[in-house]
Amino acid sequence: MAPLPTWPPALTDAQQADLAFQSATYALANGFTLLPVPPKGERVPDIPTQVIAAPLSLLPTPFPRPAYVQAKSIQRLYNALYARVALDWEFLDGIMEQVAPVDDFQAELWNRWKAIRDEIKVTQPIQLGIFRSDYLLHEHGNYVGDKAHIKQVEFNTIAASFGALSQKASEMHRYLSEQTNYFHAHAQLNNPNAFVDNHSLEEISAGLAEGFNAYGNCDAVVLFVVQEGERNVFDQRALEYQLLKRHQIQVVRLTFAQIAQRGKLDDDKMFWLDNPLGKDALEVAVVYYRAAYTPADYTTSAEWDTRVLLERATAIKCPSMALQLAGAKKVQQVLAAPGVLEDMLLARARPDVGFGAGPGSLGQPDAAALRDTWTGLWPLDSSEQGQKALQLAREHPERFVLKPQREGGGNNIYRENIPPYLAHLEEEDKARPGTAPRREAYILMELIEPPTGLHNLLVRGGEGKPRLADVVSELGVYGVALFGGDVAPVNREAGTLLRTKGRESDEGGVAIGISSIDSPLLV
Ligand code: ADP
Ligand code: MG
């Protein structure tokens, strides 16, 4: 593995300004965009009239080719693993029994699922997963690329976003190379093979189309369940355009509130949407969630009721409630405990989820390949492991991040903030005698240490002007899995995402303006 180059190469102010112009106009012209943050006190308008370029990097960021290849090559194993977890009720129950008493959101999801799972197993056993496995490069010591390898941050099973914008970022960097030759600033920037051929937009929409085809009614529609006030609409719209253009599939996008008004389950458990444009009602074939992953999406029990109604329908859910539960960070931690992954992957008789001929076809090397991408993960419960973890967290907080069972960014507790936070949880416990300690809702994870010394020119959404930042890049690999019932299984890797953020920020949300959507320059 070659060492990572010093980055970015020297560019004059005029060259940077030209790249800033080229990238901003390319982004605006090609839907590499977000809606702007609305003025204070206002909402995102129903009919938008303005867009901003998505946060971007002027140059692709160097990334070791072997690590990129490795991340892509194990995606099908991850797809198979999480499909198995979703099919394993006993395993999920065992984990949720521990999480539910200390996490109301997970408890609600689990309890609502338990109440209907026997029914839905008959109504619609097929499940669709559009996943994204996220990694950071990990390296001991400082900036020497030949030692870097990937470590998994988390595995997303619901609303894995940026597939469309990511493909556009790859295309933009390739365009900039062709258009400007990047002023011959670095040989790799003029090497077409160093740029990735990333088709995440096409791959993800093809996955939705595969779900649609498995449902088997070409007159039905795909329902996108979206958040009110969503700014990342173009990432979603691009999937919709692709579904229509390439697959002749229509999409209806609605919030939970709109579905509650317009949707109903008929006696055969088919889900129908009133068509306010006066035509016949629309039958839903696939429910694709780009919402429903955070407590804020369920302001009252009405949203939960709508979720359950959709879950009970014959429509194929992406993801099912079971798959959403499988994506809990607690599941990631439990899988990492000695023997658990091996049992899930190798020992248990599981239906074929499209990886080889059946359970027997997965071997010890597969389990080892997955474990190789994991870093230290601990429970914070009363087990021996949990006690040890608690001690570690108190004595060496600088090595850890504390994570609750949440998605969507901004929820983790880092480093020296951990001990006071644990103390605060203990205070809360005193007010609830006889219940499990609140820290059990969290997992403790070892911090991954990305290579240092890499910089890039980042442009914040809507700003236009690049700033030089010391950067950390997070690689995401998308996966598509269609499984359950007697469906012909689908298990594919589905493209990649590179998000690059300033090193000073622990979290990396693109929508909250910290991360840029980038693409890897393979070295
Ligand atoms: P979320 O579900 O909110 O996206 P993540 O587990 O992805 O939660 O954590 C959010 C961010 O925190 C990641 O994108 C990454 O930048 C950082 N992070 C999470 N876990 C680690 C870790 N073990 N080491 C270093 N950074 C981490
Ligand atoms: Mg994340």
UniProtKB/TrEMBL annotation:
Substrate binds at residues 132, 158-161, 230-232, 236, 290-293, 499, 510-511. ATP binds at residues 154, 329, 403-412, 414, 445-448, 474, 501, 507. Pathway: Sulfur metabolism; glutathione biosynthesis; glutathione from L-cysteine and L-glutamate: step 2/2. Signal peptide: none annotated. GO terms for molecular function: ATP binding; glutathione binding; glutathione synthase activity; magnesium ion binding. Mg(2+) binds at E154, N156, E407. Residues 220-326 form the Glutathione synthase substrate-binding domain. Transmembrane segments: none annotated. Binds 1 Mg(2+) ion per subunit. Pfam families: GSH_synth_ATP, GSH_synthase. It catalyses: gamma-L-glutamyl-L-cysteine + glycine + ATP = glutathione + ADP + phosphate + H(+). Its cofactor is Mg(2+). GO terms for cellular component: cytosol. Its EC number is 6.3.2.3. Keywords: ATP-binding, Glutathione biosynthesis, Ligase, Magnesium, Metal-binding, Nucleotide-binding. Homodimer. Belongs to the eukaryotic GSH synthase family. PANTHER family: GLUTATHIONE SYNTHETASE (PTHR11130:SF0). This is Glutathione synthetase.
